[in-house]
Amino acid sequence: MLLKTRSESDELLTFRYLSQRMDLSEKEEQYYLSLERGYQGECKFDEWLETRPTGGLILNDLLLEHNNTKFQIDSLMIRHPKVYMFEVKNHEGDYFVEGDRWFTRSGTEVKNPMIQVRRSETLLRQLLQTCNSNLHIESYLIFINPEFFLYQAKPDLPIIYHPQLNHFFEKLKKQPQHPNHRHMKLAQKLLDMHIHPSPFSNVPSYKYEDLKKGVLCRVCGQQINKINRAILKCPTCNHVEGLDKGVLRTIQEFQNLFSQKKLTKSSIYDWCNQTISDRSISRLLMNNFHCVRGGKNTYYELDRMNEEIKRQIE
To answer: Residue limits of the NERD domain (predicted)?
Structure first.
């Protein structure tokens, strides 16, 4: 049973929007791409897990804290008599291990992900004890990318490679599981402890006046043109998008990047680079947001974008 779904972090969304509206440094670009790869890998694992009913309680993307130390868990499964903790990596290419040190095939040293797994497991065990839970924890490092290979790794490491996923699932099904109200209570406690928004962020500084304005193509990132009252078309890649969908998506970007700014008709007109009529913008704001009337100072509540709107722009 899936109790907590996964979604892009605020950090990833901000980087995604900024990457199209400003020039990132090489270091910032590499960091952003690593966030995208990591999220895509986690989603692939979610898809794999969702197609194989386990009878367990699944919580994705948890940020928890114990003894003033925060730790992140990609996926957690409560399945009696154990708690399974999964750390998902989307690495691609050849790597090798020497002792506790990990390297790419070219010899560049990278962080040892097992250190993160062990640290998170220790903190989770201590946290569960405070919840009066004695469930045993099994932790696994999942390499979800089929194009990944690790040389010289010890066979006893708790690592599951892409070709081993099905075998792992079959092994899991053979183990007894009887989730009860105590497991559900524990899951709810962990959900209540989840920290949001995350205090960690490496987003670069940016200013409104320095960012590219306009409704940008969701495919190639170039400014998209209005064809008629209902259609937008990218002159670069010819991607076509409904006007309402494109503008709502652009409003969402504004909301994410400038949460402290009031959402007004004039602010969105300027953010769209004055390419969308103020009548269309006014209609979309009135139909989809809570209007706080104040004459010339009328604005719209940023936190009222509902789930229906989010589905429209996905």
So the answer is: 37-147
